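Bench notes, afternoon.
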Amino acid sequence: MRLNQNIPSLNVYTEYCKNLNKQSNAMNRIHSGLKVATAKDDPNKLASSEHMKIQMRSLQMASRNTQDTISMLETVDGAANNISQSLVRMKELVVQAGGTASPEDKAIIQQELDMISESINDIANSTEFNGKKIMTGAEKIKAQIGSEVGETTEINMFDFTSRGLGIKIENLKVEKPEDIDASLEMIEKSINTNTSYRSKLGAIANRLDSNVNIVEENSLKIQNAESKLTGADIAEEMVELTSKTVLVNAGISLMAQSNKLPQDVLSAIQNIGKK
């Protein structure tokens, strides 16, 4: 036995350090929930994980863009519904004027028609979304609805002003019978135009709704894959922690015993010398 180098104790200490390191790793994985937290854990998996995280965040932002676009279209539809009610009121007034209305009544009706026409313009000109006028036909909306190049949608916004719907205020008259017919025809076309615009924008909103579902499903799949790639199996790590804890405690006990062995040898030698 060599007393200047306690080889058994050194061997026990080496194994103790290894088990202590593994115990620490298991505890860190349980605490963080990750088995790949740094590049040294697994460079390839970490690189794949970072790429997946970028994809997830891009898809989440694309989903938000799409939802914002849907909200914009819903804003347009709400305002267009008010315009639709105004057009119905216009038709009602013109029909009223075609009855037994007196010249004075027709003058009052004409005044209200002019006011309704202006209110339609007010609705169209004042309806905005994120600082953009969205009912005058001046804006073309382009939204990134996917995470890759070219995954965009373009929406041509319609003109919901009186003139954009086909109402010419100077021709909206009720004084003569022929005026009634012309005004009714113009208003009817405007109602159809307004309905057509709403239908087209509604179809786009439905398509975008489907796109949101697809994007969110893809994001969830990538999130699940990334979790499996870097996430720790807690049950497995608990088994590892328990195993290494037992070995660490055993190592402490063995080191104490192996460190005591040279002392026992010296005591035995001293006892032999006394004899």
